[in-house]
Automatic annotation (TrEMBL):
It comes from Roseivirga misakiensis. Keywords: Antiport, Cell membrane, Ion transport, Membrane, Transmembrane, Transmembrane helix, Transport. Residues 446-457 have a biased composition (Acidic residues). One of its GO terms (cellular component) is plasma membrane. This is Sodium:proton exchanger.
C-alpha cells in the first residue's frame, strides 16, 4: 500500500468515527461497536486484496491501547469535581468497583480452572482482564444519563481500570513468592509509594506548567504524562494513579492548594490550561480510541461464534458479571433505581491490553482467546439495549426524596405566584396614578379655557 492510499484510509476512518458518534447519540448504539465492525470490514477487504497482517499490528494495538488509556483517564479526571456533595458517589463507586472486581475475578478463575483444567494462578491471571469494566466504552456512552448516574459510572469505570491494572501486575510480579507476608508488604508498599509519588509529581507539574510561556505547551504536558506513565510501569508502580491524581488536582486546585500555598496558584492561568486541556484530551482520546478499536476489529475471527462450547463458557462468564453487579448495586442503592447502570458493565480496551500483556511463562495452552471477543461483544450489545430501553426514564426516588422534591416545587410555585401577584398590583397602582394625573390635567385645561376667550359684546 502506497503512502497516499494509507492517508486516504486513515482519513476515512476518522470521518467514519465522527459519523458513528452522531449515529450513537441518535440510536444509543455505542460507537465502539460500530468501530469494531468497521475493523471487521477492513479485514475482509484486506483479505480480499491479499494484504497480510503481521506481528506489527499487535504491537500497534498495544501502543494505541496504552496511549488511549492515558487520554481517557485524564479526560475523565479533569471532568470530575471533588466536594462534600460528591463524596457519597465517590466512595460508593470505589467500593462497588473493588468488590465487583474481586467477585468476578475469583468466580471466573474458578470457571476457567474447572472447564480448561488450568492451574489456579494462571486461571486468575486470565480472569482479571475479563473482570475489568472498560472506561473507554463507558465514558463516551453515558453522556445521555442523568448527572448523578453519569458521575457514578465515570467514577466506577475509572476505579475499575485502576484497581484491575494494579491487581493484575501485583499478581504476575509476585507469582512464585511463597511468603504471604512478602506479598502483602509488596502490595501495601507499592500503593503507598505510588500515591506519594503521584501527589508530589502532580503538585510539581501544576506549578511548573502554569509558569511556562508559549503556545504549544499542552502536548508537552501530555508527553510528560506518558513518559511518567511508562517510567512508572518500568518501576512496577501503578502509573495510572499518577494520571488520575494529576487530573483531579488540576481540576480541584481550590481543594488541594490551601493556606499559604494557595498564593502559589494563578487561578486565571490554571483555568486557561484546563480549558485547552479539555479540548486536546477529548480530541486525542477520540483519535486513539478510534484506531484502537478499528485495529482490534481487524484481528477478530467470527468463526469462534460457531464453537458452541466456547460460546457457552463465555455466556456463563457474562452471567457472572450481571449477577454480581445486580447484587452489589441493590446493596448500595436499596431505595433507588439501578437502571440502566445494571446493564453498563462492558469489557473492552483494558481487557485486550492486559490479555496481550500476560507473560510467556503464565500463558495457557488450553484457554481459548475467543472468549475475550465474545464477552466484549455480548456485554456491549447488552449495554446498548439497556441504554436504549432505560436511559430516558426518570430515576426512582426514595419517599423522603419525593417529599423534599414536592416541597421544593411548592416553594418555587408559591414564589412564582407571589411574584406575578406583586407585578399585577404594581401595574394596577401605576395605571391608577396615570388616571389621576390625566384627570388633573384635564381639569386644569378646563379652568384655563374661559380666560383665553374674548368677552361678548
Amino acid at each position: 500500500m502506497n503512502a497516499y492510499n494509507l492517508i486516504i484510509a486513515l482519513s476515512c476512518v476518522i470521518i467514519f468515527s465522527h459519523i458513528f458518534n452522531f449515529v450513537s447519540k441518535r440510536t444509543k448504539v455505542p460507537s465502539v461497536i460500530l468501530l469494531i465492525l468497521l475493523g471487521v470490514g477492513i479485514k475482509l477487504v484486506m483479505d480480499f486484496y491479499e494484504y497480510s497482517q503481521d506481528a506489527l499490528i499487535f504491537s500497534t494495538l498495544e501502543v494505541l491501547g496504552i496511549v488511549g488509556l492515558i487520554m481517557i483517564v485524564l479526560e475523565a479526571a479533569i471532568d470530575l469535581e471533588l466536594s462534600k456533595d460528591k463524596w457519597p458517589i465517590i466512595w460508593k463507586s470505589f467500593v462497588v468497583a473493588l468488590l465487583s472486581l474481586m467477585v468476578c475475578a475469583f468466580s471466573i478463575s474458578f470457571i476457567i480452572n474447572q472447564v480448561f483444567q488450568e492451574d489456579p494462578i494462571i486461571s486468575l491471571v486470565y480472569a482479571i482482564p475479563l473482570s475489568i469494566m472498560s472506561s473507554a466504552i463507558v465514558i463516551p456512552s453515558v453522556n445521555g444519563l442523568f448527572e448523578d448516574k453519569k458521575e457514578f459510572m465515570i467514577y466506577e469505570s475509572t476505579f475499575s481500570d485502576i484497581l484491575g491494572i494494579m491487581f493484575f501486575y501485583f499478581l504476575i510480579e509476585n507469582v512464585g513468592t511463597e511468603n504471604t507476608g512478602t506479598v502483602v508488604y509488596s502490595i501495601i508498599g507499592n500503593i503507598v509509594i505510588t500515591i506519594v509519588v503521584s501527589i508530589a509529581i502532580s503538585y510539581a507539574l501544576v506549578l511548573l506548567f502554569q509558569r511556562l510561556v508559549g503556545d504549544v505547551k499542552l502536548f508537552m504536558l501530555i508527553a510528560v504524562l506518558i513518559l511518567l506513565y511508562a517510567i512508572g510501569k518500568q518501576l512496577h508502580l501503578s502509573s495510572l494513579v499518577i494520571i488520575l491524581v494529576f487530573g483531579l488536582l488540576l481540576n480541584n486546585t481550590n481543594l488541594f492548594f490551601f493556606g499559604k500555598i494557595k498564593s502559589w496558584v494563578d487561578s486565571k492561568m490554571i483555568s486557561g490550561i484546563l480549558k485547552d486541556l479539555h479540548l486536546v484530551t477529548r480530541e486525542s482520546a477520540f483519535v486513539v480510541r478510534t484506531f484502537f478499536f478499528v485495529v482490534f476489529g481487524t484481528t477478530i475471527d467470527f468463526r469462534a461464534l460457531l464453537n458452541l462450547e466456547i460460546v457457552g463458557v463465555s455466556l456463563i462468564i457474562v452471567a457472572v458479571f450481571y449477577l454480581s453487579r445486580f447484587l452489589l448495586l441493590k446493596a448500595f442503592f436499596i431505595k433507588k433505581s439501578i437502571l440502566p447502570e445494571l446493564f453498563i458493565t462492558p469489557r473492552g480496551l483494558i481487557t485486550v491490553l492486559l490479555f496481550f500483556s500476560i507473560p510467556a511463562h503464565l500463558t495457557s495452552d488450553t484457554f481459548n482467546s475467543d472468549i475475550i471477543l465474545i464477552t466484549i461483544l455480548a456485554t456491549s450489545i447488552i449495554m446498548t439495549w439497556g441504554l436504549i430501553r432505560f436511559s430516558g426514564t426518570e430515576p426512582e426516588l426514595a419517599p423522603e426524596e419525593v417529599i423534599a422534591d414536592a416541597l421544593e416545587k411548592d416553594n418555587q410555585s408559591s414564589k412564582e405566584v407571589s411574584y406575578f401577584v406583586s407585578r399585577m398590583s404594581d401595574e394596577a397602582e401605576e395605571a391608577a396614578d396615570k388616571e389621576v394625573l390625566a384627570e388633573e390635567e384635564k381639569h386644569e385645561e378646563g379652568d384655563e379655557e374661559p380666560e383665553d376667550q374674548e368677552p361678548k359684546s
